[in-house]
Amino acid sequence: MIWNFGDLIIISISLVYTSRFNQITDKIKLYIESNKTHSNVLSIYSVEIEKIRDKFWRDLRRDYGQMYQMCTSSSDLFGLLILITYSFNMMFILVQLFVSLRPREQIIEILYFVSSFSFVVGRTVMSSIYGGWLDEAGKAALPILNAVPSEMYTEEVAMFIAQIQNNSPTLSGYNFFNITKGLVLSIAASIITYELVLMQFNQQELDQYLSVKGNVTICY
């Protein structure tokens, strides 16, 4: 039963943290733009403004660190669930692909296979996409910080850049893998490889499936 809700949990967690990291990125953009607009006025109070800027970046860096720690804690808490969810999804996809090589004549059987297979593939892909958005959201501020104007660049900005580079938030499957958009391609490659192995070692059973006629149904 837990497996059935695993993908929803992954998507929900990813949405929450993605939203929070996007808020941090938007705050950085807004701050830089506002400082560019009022750069001439702010230059008069350079000493005070520098202190305010340092405090802004320090507070933002602390917020990012807290969000990263929360994301890491969630990944540790749900790591086993993520691993089980992806394992069951892959197992179901592999079995369904192998059994699909058998000809089907009944429309109900065809509809069941197409709907169930599409459902599992769809939720696996969606989990990876939403998890990938979290990974991208955690790094989204990096190019903006690297493009900060020289008059606004401080030691706090450099530390913020290093923090993002070294502490990128992702959900992990019990430290066996991280959920990114590239995971979809890795899963697809693994499925193709395992499917070829299954076909090779089960050729006799596959021949039996291909020879099934009439209303005989072989189920797993």
Automatic annotation (TrEMBL):
The chain crosses the membrane at residues 77-99, 111-133, 176-197. Keywords: Cell membrane, Membrane, Receptor, Transmembrane, Transmembrane helix. It comes from the Eukaryota. GO terms for cellular component: plasma membrane. Pfam families: Trehalose_recp. GO terms for molecular function: taste receptor activity. One of its GO terms (biological process) is sensory perception of sweet taste. It is a multi-pass membrane protein. It is found in: Cell membrane. Its main location: membrane. InterPro entries: Gustatory_rcpt. Belongs to the insect chemoreceptor superfamily. Gustatory receptor (GR) family. Gr5a subfamily. This is Gustatory receptor.
